[in-house]
Automatic annotation (TrEMBL):
Gene3D superfamilies: 3.30.2320.80. The gene is hypA. It comes from the Bacteria. The keyword Signal does not apply. Involved in the maturation of [NiFe] hydrogenases. Required for nickel insertion into the metal center of the hydrogenase. This is Hydrogenase maturation factor HypA. Ni(2+) binds at H2. It comes from Micromonospora halotolerans. Keywords: Metal-binding, Nickel, Zinc. Pfam families: HypA (PF01155). The keyword Metal-binding applies. Zn(2+) binds at C69, C72, C87, C90.
């Protein structure tokens, strides 16, 4: 997964939705990908520099895909790429992966005090 491209896409979406208002907070839902939240948060802050999104609080909601194992019956969230090919519990390969890998900008918080300001 390419965290930089992801971060830039999130910032671009937030800037578009803010429509010129100053953004104080972002809530982003990231499904599927085994990502490093710190890297994504940092990437967003870097990409946001100089935009209305700069200095906003970033709230990442991670929704990992789950792996369902037919061998031990276990169901585990996927935390790394290895779990995509073998059950994290028993190492079995008779597994089914479910979930989606959508990245969604769930909401933005805008600074309403700037609305109507001179
Ligand atoms: Zn298993």
């Amino acid at each position: 997964m390419h965290e930089t491209g992801l971060s830039e896409a999130i910032v671009a979406a937030a800037v578009r939705r803010a429509a010129g208002r100053r953004v104080t907070g972002l809530r982003v839902r990231i499904g599927g990908h085994a990502i490093d939240p710190d890297v994504v948060t940092q990437g967003i802050q870097v990409a946001a520099a100089g935009t209305v999104v700069a200095d906003s609080a970033v709230d990442l909601v991670l929704e990992p895909m789950t792996v369902q194992c037919h061998e031990c019956g276990g169901s585990e969230p996927i935390r790394d790429h290895l779990a995509m090919v073998a059950c994290p519990r028993c190492g079995g390969v008779d597994i089914e992966v479910s979930g989606n890998d959508d990245v969604v900008l769930e909401s933005i918080t805008v600074d309403s005090r700037t609305l109507g300001a001179v």
